[in-house]
Task: structure prediction
Amino acid sequence: MLPEETLLNRYTIIKDNLRENNLDAWVTFRYESRRYLTGFTGSAGILVLNPEPILLVDFRYAEQAKIESLKAKIIEFNKPYHKYLKEALNSGSSKKVGFEPNHLTVSQLRELKEFIGEVEWVPVENLVENCRIVKDEQEISSIKAAQELSEKALNNIINLLKPGVKEIDLAVELEYQIRKNGANIAFPIIVASGERAALPHAQPTSKEIKTGEFIVIDFGARIDGYASDCTRTFFLGKPGEKEVEVYNYVLEAQRQALSIIQAGEEAGLVDKAARDYLKDKGLDSYFGHGLGHGVGLEVHEAPRAAIDEKTILKEGMVITIEPGVYIPGWGGVRIEDMVVVRNNGYFNLTKFPKEEWVA
Ligand code: ZN
Ligand code: ZN
Result:
C-alpha cells in the first residue's frame, strides 16, 4: 500500500501536467501507471484521472483494489467496460482526454473512439514516466532490498561454477535462490558462457561451462514491484593475458563512468566516459549497446545513459552502469552496477565484488 502523502504528491504532479496540456482527463490501461498512481497491483484495470482518480476493475479485483488503493474511487465493471468508462469520464464533463500512445493498442484506441466518441482523444507521451524517473526513498529502499536479496542468491550458487555445470542449471538454481529468499525474478536470468558470452542478451542453454571460459550472469529480483539489475562476469580456470586485459578494461571503463556521476551531469556524458576509455584501448567497436538505463517498476526505464542522451541526471534517479566488450568467437565481459544519483555523487546499490572474478 502506498502512503497517502506519496499518492497525493503524484496526483498533484500529474494533474498539473494535465492542466498544462489543456486536458480535462486522462486514461490508462497500463499496469505500471496504475500501480504508480494508485498502489493497485492487479494485472487488469483502467485508471481514469478526471482529474480525481477513478479505478475501474472487474469482479476479480474489486476487493483487492479497495484494500490497495486508498485514494481512488473504485468502480466494479462488467464487460464490456465502455459504459463504465464513459460514465467515469462524463462525471467531470470531460472533453479532451489524454492516453498513453506507447501503451494502447490500435484496436483499443479504435474502440475508445467508437464507443466514447464525444471526447477528443489526445496522445500524451511520458506523462507518468517523467514522474517515475526520480525515485523517492521508499522506492529506493525497495530497489536496494531487491539488489541485496539477489546478491545473496548469487552468493549461494557461486560454488556451482565448476566445469560440466550447464548454463540452464546455473540460471534455474539462481532463480530458485531468489524465490526461496522471498522475491521474484525481475526478468529471465541470462547465463552465457564461452563464445556465447559475446551475445549480450543470450538465454541460458544446456551448454556446459568449461575451463577457460567467461560466464556472464545477468540477473535481478523484484520486491514490492521494484526491480534490481546486476551483471557479473566470471572466469573458469586461469585466465590468459587477453582475458585479464579485457576484464580490467571493462572494469576501468565502469569506474570512469561512475567517477563523473552526480546530479546535474548529462546522462550521455556518463556513457561517453566509459566509451572513450574503451576507444582508447581499441575496444569501443565491441561495446555495441548503451551504457545503462533507469531501473524501477520496469527493468528498463528512463533515463537512458546512452550516446547523445541529453537528460540531466537528478538526485534520486536510479541507473545501471554496464559497460561490456563482446568479441565474436572469443567471448565477452559485462559488469553492471546499479547506482542512485545523489547531489554530490552517487550511491552504489551493488556490493557484489568485481575483483574476485576467477572461479
Ligand atoms: Zn542486467
Ligand atoms: Zn541492465
Observations:
- The longest strand covers residues 214-219.
